[in-house]
Amino acid sequence: MGRVEGKVVLISGAARGQGRSHARVLAAEGADIIAVDVCADIETNEYPLARPEDLDETARLVEKEGRKAYTAIADVRDRVALAAAIDAGVAEFGRLDAVVANAGIAPLTAGGPLQAFVDAVDVDLVGVFNLVGASLKHLNAGASIVATGSLAAYLASQNTGGMDAGPGGAGYGFAKQVVAHYVNDLALQLAPSHIRVNCIHPTNVNTDMLHSPPMYRAFRPDLQNPSREEAEASFPFLNAMPIPYVEPEDISELVLFLVSDASRYVTGQQIRVDAGGALKVFPWSGR
After folding, report:
1. Would residue 172 show up in a list of annotated catalytic residues for this protein?
2. Mean pLDDT over each residue of the chain, to the nearest integer
3. CB neighbour class for 51 (10 Å; exposed up to 12, middle 13-18, buried from 19)
4. Pfam families given for it (predicted)?
């Protein structure tokens, strides 16, 4: 217990899913949380996004752990509004020790609108740029930046079993690839300042993003309106371990390590929590 005692952590996409899990786990280990989420839908993203009451629930879970939460509704695509929210949160707590760039969408629709590519890139990639850019002035030696990548960063240029995710899926894969590259290069730039930057690449995670009609259709293009049960039968094909998905807490445990001082010399890493998914695609390279 207390592995991040006294730290203040900023989390985007904190209203539900992985972001909420990160907030709760970090709070249980002693961190106060600045929780940011758009709490509104994006037109090309077919499944509904979080609502203000979801962000309130995240705050309640943080406070249940005996820590403080500062919440703000802000769109990661809007750097001005995002910076204002971050500045207000830092003013509330007096410091910022870690940034978790978690906000993301997956507008996976076969034959979907071209705008879906733009929206996926704007949220999943530009949103990371904006969060880091608006936070950097608040970070000091010992700080940690953690970005959410995806197994898709490794599979985007590979045959993923015939999944047809449309322009939004292409934008998602592109965004996650560039996030990985950004983390690598940013880590090198910030290393002299003793600020660490790492990326986590999950496989399927048991969240609302995964359990949505567009995701089900992407996994089961042979069916017009596949049920959850029909889609879940195909989920394990991504992984070497025969499981359909990991839990948000599986990712949160790694976030906790990367935020904590236990990882004080870990930087520039691309860490997969993918049940061996990438192993199925890429041969041993010796790197």
Report:
1. yes
2. 95
3. middle
4. adh_short_C2 (PF13561)
Name which of 41, 34, 86 is nearest 55 in CA terms. Answer: 34
According to the model, what pLDDT value does residue 160 have?
Answer: 46
Which of 70, 172, 216, 245 is labelled catalytic? 172
**Nearest residue to 212 (alpha-carbon basis) of 82, 46, 53, 91:** 46
Find out whether 142 and 198 touch, Cβ atoms under 8 Å: no
Task: List the one residue out of 153, 149, 147 whose CA is nearest residue 132.
Answer: 147
Tell the burial category of 282 from Cβ atoms under 10 Å away from its Cβ (0-12, 13-18, 19+): exposed
- The predicted model scores a pTM of 0.96
* Start-to-end Cα distance in the chain: 35
42-71 confidence digits (pLDDT tens): 999 999 999 999 999 999 999 999 999 999
* Least confident segment among 1-10, 148-157, 229-238: 148-157
The CA distance from 214 to 196, in Å, is: 35
